[in-house]
Amino acid sequence: MTDFALFPGCLIPTRVPSYEVSLRKTAERLGVNFVEMENLTCCAPVGVLSLDYLTSLSLGARNLAIVEEMGLDTMCTPCNGCFEGLDRTATILNKDPETLEKVNEILAEVGKEYNGTITVRHLAEIYYDDVGIDKIKEMMVKPLDALTVGIRPGCHLFRPIEVIGIDYSERYFFLDDLIAATGAESVYYKHRLRCCGGLLRNVSGDIVEGILRKRLIELKEGNVDCVVTVCPLCFLQFDLGQKLVERKFKEKYDLPTLTYSELLGLGMGLSAEELGLQTHRIKVDKLLAKIG
Amino acid sequence: MSEGEYKVPIKEPIKTKDLDPDFKYEIADTYLGRHITACFKCGACTGGCPVGILTEIYKPRQIIGEALLGMREKVLTGGELWLCATCYTCEDRCPQKVNITDVIIALRNMAFREGHTPEALIEQARNMVETGWIQKTTASMDKRREELGLSRLPKMAVEDMQKIVKATGFIKYLYKKEDKK
Ligand code: SF4
Ligand code: SF4
User: Fold this and answer.
1) Cα-flanking dihedrals φ and ψ of residue B113, to 5°?
2) B53 CB less than 6 Å from ligand 2?
3) Where exactly are the structural domains of chain A?
4) What is the pLDDT of residue B99?
């Protein structure tokens, strides 16, 4: 397996540290080697793209140029927002020399140049394609067979299709196989690939909570024990956001949320404490009791 | 959702004198907006929109339709543009392969340059330019990281960030409002 330049983004290190803890601890055991990146800027995700296209591309390209300087060809990010922003930037710049030239004129201001050689991949893809289902199964010391899971892949793991390079997004999904590899069951509940509304958090709380509430009701109807996601924004929505919805609508969902790395860690026999699960707003005790 | 929470706005008749027939070409000229003129207004985008199902004030077909008609002012200043959750579901479902979300982003770029952006997004972008982080950071975050055995938050390349946003011209739109004050 090749080495990956790790781009953790901002949301995970600042707001979801248990995701970072668990991805580092599981990677070590799975033989995934992350090389730390330094001197980064924001990935300039869709919130920045929404204001200025060229700025988003240029900031993204500067981060990609750092991976080239490190002598690597693949960047891995565990964040859907970074993935969308940086994968889009790479997809455009790696095949459009005209735009690349324009961006490099900007990068010259900071003494950098991007040569269009980097592939950006999401951590989930690395678990699936590079580590592989067999290896994950082999590493499970604590089967999670008792658990039913509702997946929240996070829109930007599989959309836009143009950037991801697929025909259609709303079909069978590799995250299900990753869940199955841990022994847990991924439940086909209603609207499981629909948006959680997270990116509207800054613009309209009413709409975000309205969308999130629909997703929570569907999960409840699907009779899942927990939500599992690979997106830090989904995580915040279903963890902290769930509390806000409960308060606003005077309802109780009590659905623990894990990142996939945390689920993996539990299956590998790491304790909740070692994985940092005490930082979750929705307590995971019931879940741990069920696993035994 | 209780009835009347989101009201359907009453529509005024559209006057041709208020329309900008070149608006759609202006959009189609941008990379993100390049497919807009393929739209045949079927409504598949609105049908799958997680925001549209919740509120009458946001319907992607309507935005695309208004833009094609040339309702420049309404589209860029009306505020609806910013209610897209950028989930890209509509792009998948469009029979005409219009990249609707990207078109909306292209329109947001125009609205931004003309000074019609929700303040929260401007503030977020300023935070990014000033600190390197789009997320606000606090000292307690480092403390929590330490407890979990993680390193301190990394230093960001703020100087480079500022040079880049200056070179792209971004910075001048970001602080425009304040300069006027
Ligand atoms: S789905 Fe496509 S063709 Fe249909 S209204 Fe939306 S943008 Fe137009
Ligand atoms: S990308 Fe925007 S317009 Fe399209 S379905 Fe999602 S929220 Fe609706």
Assistant:
1) -65, -25
2) no
3) 3-123, 133-291
4) 95
Contacts with A101 (C-beta within 8 Å, 6 or more apart), sequence order: none
User: How far is ligand 2, taken at its centre, from the CA of residue B91, in Å?
Assistant: 8
**Is B42 near chain A, with CB under 8 Å?**
no
| Mean pLDDT of the residues in chain B | 91
Task: Tell me the count of A-B CB pairs closer than 8 A.
Answer: 187
Q: How far is the CA of A209 from the centre of ligand 1 (A)?
A: 27
Q: Is B110 in the pocket of ligand 1 (CB under 6 A)?
A: no
Give the global pTM.
0.94
DSSP one-letter code for A130: I
Q: What is the pLDDT of residue B52?
A: 95
Sign of the CA dihedral running B113, A162, A69, A43: positive
Q: What is the ipTM of this complex?
A: 0.94
Cα-based distances in Å from A245 to A23, A125, A239, B4, B124: 28, 31, 10, 20, 24
**Within an 8 Å CB–CB cutoff, is residue A153 touching chain B?**
no
Q: Enumerate domains of chain B plus CATH numbers.
A: 18-113 (1.10.1060.10), 119-174 (no CATH)
- Taking 50 as the threshold, does the pLDDT of residue B180 lie above it? no
Residue ranges of chain A with pLDDT lower than 50? none
Summarised one tens digit per residue, pLDDT across range B150-174 is 999 999 999 999 999 999 999 999 9
Which pair of structure tokens corresponds to residue A15? Answer: 């707001």
Determine contact, residues A47/A85, Cβ cutoff 8 Å. Answer: no
Q: Does the beta-carbon distance from A14 to B31 stay under 8 Å?
A: no
- CATH number belonging to domain A3-123: 1.20.1050.140
Q: How far is A41 from chain B (nearest CA, A)?
A: 6
Q: How large is the greatest C-alpha to C-alpha distance in chain B, in angstroms?
A: 64
> Which residues of A are less than 8 Å from B174 in CB distance?
51
Residue-wise pLDDT for B33-80, tens only, equals 999 999 999 999 999 999 999 998 999 999 999 999 999 999 999 999
Residue A182's SS3 state is coil
All residues of chain B having their beta carbon less than 8 Å from the beta carbon of residue A44 are 128
Task: Please check whether the domain covering A133-291 is classified as CATH 3.40.50.11810.
Answer: yes
Which band of pLDDT confidence, cut at 50, 70 and 90, is reported for residue B181? very low
**Omega of the bond leading into A153 within 30 degrees of 0 (cis):** no
Chain B residues inside the 8 Å CB shell of A50: 82, 86, 105, 108-109, 112, 121
Residue B87 sits at the chain A interface (C-beta within 8 Å): yes
